[in-house]
Each structure stands twice: as C-alpha cells, then as structure tokens.
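seq as requested:
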Amino acid sequence: MNPEEIKKLEAYLKKKFDLQALQVRARPKKDDSAEVYIGDEFIGVIYRDDEDDDLSWNFQMAILEFDLEDEG
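struct tokens:
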C-alpha cells in the first residue's frame, strides 16, 4: 500500500471508530497490507484486495480469550 492509501484508510477508521489514537502503519517488506495500532498496541492487519477489478480492504483482528478476561 502506498502512503496516500494508508493515510486515507487511517482517516476512515479514525472517523468510523471515533478513535483518534488509531494509526495505520506500513508493513516492512509488504505492499499488500498495513498494520493497525491503537497507541502502541497492535490490534490487526488491513489487507488490500484488488482481484476482479473490485478494490477493497479487509480488516482482520484477532481477539484472544485472555484479552476478554482483562476487561471483566
């Protein structure tokens, strides 16, 4: 992903989740995805999908059981 695309995705996610601490960062040696952080905490990956002439992005976030226990 290029810097302009990352900037647009970051702005979209900040607005969608109402979360200014969210950041989208380029991945080293990868151009088909970017990492998503809240502050310094890694929360997931956005994958670019441009197959079949339909451009989209898929956000993948794993939630571990111990993450839920921390919240309860």
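Residues 3-17 form the longest helix (15 residues).
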